[in-house]
Amino acid sequence: MSSTAPILEARGLHKSYVSGERRLQVLRGVDLAVEVGESVSIRGESGSGKSTLLNLLSGLDATDAGELRWEGETTLSATRRGRLIGLVFQSFYLVPELDALDNVLLAARLLGPVGASERARAADLLWRVGLAERATHIPAKLSGGERQRVAIARALMNRPQLILADEPTGNLDEGSGEAVINLLLALCAESGCALVLVTHNAAHADRCGRRLFLREGGFHSV
Amino acid sequence: MPWPLYLALKQLFPSGRRFPFFTCISILGVALGVALLIVSISVMGGFGREIRNMIVNTQGEVQVRASGLMDDPRAVMAAIEKVPGVVATTPFAEGVVMLQYQNKPAFPAIQGVDANRVDRVIPLRKFVVAGDYDSLDDDRVILSAQLAMTIGARLGSKVSVYSPLLLEKLKADEILIPRELEVCGIFEIGHQQLDSSVVIVTLRTMQELYGIGRSVHGINVKLADGFDADRAAAAINHALPVDGVAKSWMDANQEFLFVLQLEKNMIFFLLLFIIVVAAFSVASSLLIAVVRKTREIGLLGALGASPGQVAACFCYQGVIIGLAGTVSGLALGFAVVHFRNDLVAGFTRLTGSQAALERFYQFSQLPAYLSGTDLALIITSALLVSTLAGLLPAWRAAKLKPVEALRSE
What we know:
The structure holds two protein chains of two kinds.
Chain A: E1 8-19, E2 22-34, E3 39-44, H1 50-57, E4 65-70, H2 78-84, E5 85-88, H3 100-109, H4 116-128, H5 144-156, E6 162-166, H6 174-191, E7 194-198, H7 202-206, E8 210-215, E9 218-221
Parallel strand pairs in A: 3-7, 3-8, 5-6, 6-7
Antiparallel strand pairs in A: 1-2, 1-4, 8-9
Chain B: H1 3-12, H2 21-59, E1 62-70, H3 73-81, E2 86-96, E3 98-101, E4 104-106, E5 109-113, H4 118-121, H5 124-127, E6 128-131, E7 140-144, H6 145-151, E8 158-162, H7 164-171, E9 179-187, H8 192-196, E10 198-202, H9 203-210, E11 216-223, H10 229-239, E12 244-248, H11 249-252, H12 254-292, H13 294-303, H14 307-338, H15 340-351, H16 354-361, H17 372-399, H18 402-407
Parallel strand pairs in B: 5-10, 7-9
Antiparallel strand pairs in B: 1-11, 1-12, 2-5, 2-11, 3-4, 3-8, 6-9, 7-10, 8-9
């Protein structure tokens, strides 16, 4: 791995889906490089392929063609993804049986044994997102904004180099959405990790260092 | 703690919920199956042990019978006592007599025992509930409890005994004089059939009643503790100086014991289906959970979990339900076994069926015995079936691709 290599580098990504007898070409040669500490927003109309692109960037889905490199390497195992990338989803995806602290700790548990230092970090992250008092609450007892804040804390738990956030404010009201974006940008800046933010919200997108617009399978600068 | 186990525990016992419905019902299903198996197999085992004790306590562990009469029992006993494992021997003569007391007749089996030796092989003394075993002599008799009650005889009563030999005399137009015997004891073994129709006299009295001189019908043999009765019987057969056959108590009651074992196996097999049905319910609930938690499963994959770890999470749920159900079932089962006689007494009081129960099952108390092997078999079966119940949901969960699972509605 080169010290100057981007955290994430995508070249000529193609992706299509088969729908009935038709093949839908969603991405047509997308190129993207995300540097350390950079924030990039991706906007686009519904169905333009934003979430598909994010799935490719996170290694959850395979490309039809093109090349992806994470810290210079072309392979990304599940464990390495857990360490390198933090994921934030529109629907939060918290485990309903776990309280807020355990949901944050889950990201660390999946990668190895959890000790006092991990617990302390999870508690610290909850404090940073303003939920120290709600650590023992299960997701059902939290508001939408609070759930997304727990999800952000979970994404940061393993000190990732990159956060991929897919419409993190999509299920929130304006006030909560604003608070979540503020928090996400602040925490990423503070921890020095890069952020790729997929959003419909132009105001939120404008707050990122680089803004991209996805249309007809490719990027167009805003 | 590995995270699949941790998450399995959390999914079964979520934070902030005291009685998770699915978990409780699943555990209860397995627990009821295990408890029923424990109770049924214990009672069947108890009956088996009672029967074994009854046989050994009335016949010894090995019984040697001549094809006709054994004319020189002392020589036979001396030969048998040289066989390794043999602790003591006692001769017996047996038959059927007519017994009469105050015009009330009965036709019990009669057993003639050597009062000086019998105690070393058969613990008759401990079954005597009234009177004195030591006072048994050639003019006295010990009656079984229900027989005494049926004919109204008590301690000190004089009963008349008519043997088949008297019938021979009757044919020869001789005067029929029955043998008068005084009741010196009453015994109760706890087995309805034996308690209702057996009388015990001295060997000499029996020999006189049947006119067989000094001959006997057989010899009961007591073995050292833990000595294999079948092996001892084979060794005795090898050493027997006369025409006779030694049979272990198992061999002599082979068909009866086979039926008993068959019943026990059938009960085990049938009741195991309760656990199997409970396991199906667990599997079905876990499969629903896999569908319901599809996006959570996708999340685990996205956060770094391998398919094997996701599968283990659901496997553990089956194992945990099996473990908790088995432990609860054992506790419930052993509690029922402990209070079985109180429960049966309560039930028979309600239904007025105490007498019928004793008559039908031939035991006054419900026996219970669970061998280590049976206990291990029940525990292993319950855990195995419950674990298998978690495999199908685990396989389904492991097959889910994170990206598709996260996209699912």
